[in-house]
Amino acid sequence: MRAVPQLLAGLLLTLSLPMYSHADEGNQGTQATIRIGIIGPFTGKSSTDMGESIRGGARVFLQDINQIGGVMGRRIELVERDDQAKPELGVAMAKELVDKEKVVAVIGIANTGVALQAAKVFQDSKKPLIITAATGAAVTKQYMPPAIPDSYVFRLAASDNLQPSVILSDVIDKRKLTQIAILHDDSPYGMYGKENLMAEMQRRKITPVALESFKVGDQDMTAQLSKAKQGGAQVVVVYCLSSEGAMVANSMSKIKLNVPLAGSWTLSQRSFAELAGGNAEGTRMPVTFIENDASNRSNDFVLNYFRINNVKSIPSAVAAAQTYDALRILTLALMQANTTDGDKIKLALEDMKYDTTSTVISRYKKPFSKNDHEAIARNMLFIGEIRRGKVAYAYKEDANSSLIVRTK
């Protein structure tokens, strides 16, 4: 008989937690499923790595949780919706999840532009949303006190308030590269990333040798990179989606700009390495999770992902792991609240009584509070590097520390 995977061990603790009260759900009774929305770009051109991985990570969790009977004596049901990375469609799908599907909470969203608009639907309907890929800092900030007294928008992904600091710490402090060229796309994600990069550089009293933008979908960035080359760039830092990041890498090769490439977490996605080929080698980015981590908890998650989704690799391992962890935290909040009422789930998320024991990225102790809806702290981030087409630890000490419990 196959042994119970390590990831399930912590979930078994749910059997000793409070059981669900019939009165909380009127006539639905304990046999009705608890419906959780999963939203992301499952189809489209620019962001499917993230969307597929959000859905894939959620499906791993679904099997894990339902094997032990679900939550509060009820099985979990995932209701999936494809936003195609389009803000207007994201809003429509958000409304459908709330009004038609009657979900109790929602997990996902990959694109900052989608999150900025769709989050309002969940905020207005008082349905908790945990974002697991979109990193634009403004997404959560716009609903936080004092502007909004009660926010229903949470995130388990590295905010763009964190990533620029981590990127530049590696570039400047560890690699001693100060002649920096910044390239970014013109999406909300790229623009917010650029602003945060510039703020961090200003704090360090460093001026970029080039600051250039490009459109989502552009294939040739040689004009922008030629300016970086003329300015004496020692490194190129990009803030964009994975496909355009690959075009930057290819354009650097085209004009023989032989300097390191670094960027945001999106460069860890499979499509970046596939589209850039050998030009991706050595590229660095901040990540919360690496598919090839040797730890048991990581290995269990990856193997289960492969089996359940019938694949041989994870398109965006970071998005998959963050989604799994977000669902685990949401499950604990449901058990703590002992109801599917949105207000009580939100309060439970903000004051978690249970520490997580079966999550992948970290062991979270009070991941959120009323004034802080960001679960990922800086000590959960480390630098990944493309080696032979796959993301590896840039530094051996990070590989060793990944085996240690990381808490916020």
Walk me through the structure.
It is built from 14 helices and 12 strands. By secondary structure, the protein is α/β, with parallel strands linked by helices. The protein has 2 domains: 238 residues, Rossmann fold (3-Layer(aba) Sandwich); 144 residues, Response regulator (Rossmann fold). The chain has a 5-stranded parallel sheet. It has a 4-stranded parallel sheet with strand order 7-6-8-9, with helices on both faces. The protein has a 3-stranded antiparallel sheet with strand order 10-11-12. Strand 11 and strand 12 form a beta hairpin. The two termini are 37 Å apart. The relative contact order is 0.14.
Summarize the structure.
This protein has 408 residues and is α/β, with parallel strands linked by helices. The protein is built from 14 helices and twelve strands.
- The figure for the number of domains is 2
Shape: globular
Largest sheet: 5 strands, parallel
Order of helices and strands: HEHEHEHEHEHEHEHEHEHEHHHEEH
Count of strand segments? 12
Q: For the residues shown, what is the average pLDDT?
A: 91
Please report which band the strand proportion falls in: under 5%, 5-15%, 15-25%, 25-35%, 35-45% or over 45%. Answer: 5-15%
CATH topology of the largest domain: Rossmann fold
N-to-C CA distance = 37 Å
Instruction: Write down the Rg.
Output: 21 Å
Give me the number of helical elements.
14
CATH superfamily of the largest domain: Response regulator
Strands in their spatial order, largest beta sheet = 2-1-3-4-5
* CATH structural architecture of the largest domain: 3-Layer(aba) Sandwich
Overall CATH class of the largest domain: Alpha Beta
Sequence stretches where pLDDT stays below 50 over 5 or more residues:
1-10, 12-30
Pairing-aware structural class of the strands and helices?
A: alpha/beta
Keywords: Signal
Organism: Undibacterium pigrum
Protein name: Amino acid/amide ABC transporter substrate-binding protein (HAAT family)
InterPro entries: BCAA_transport (IPR051010), Leu-bd (IPR028081), Peripla_BP_I (IPR028082)
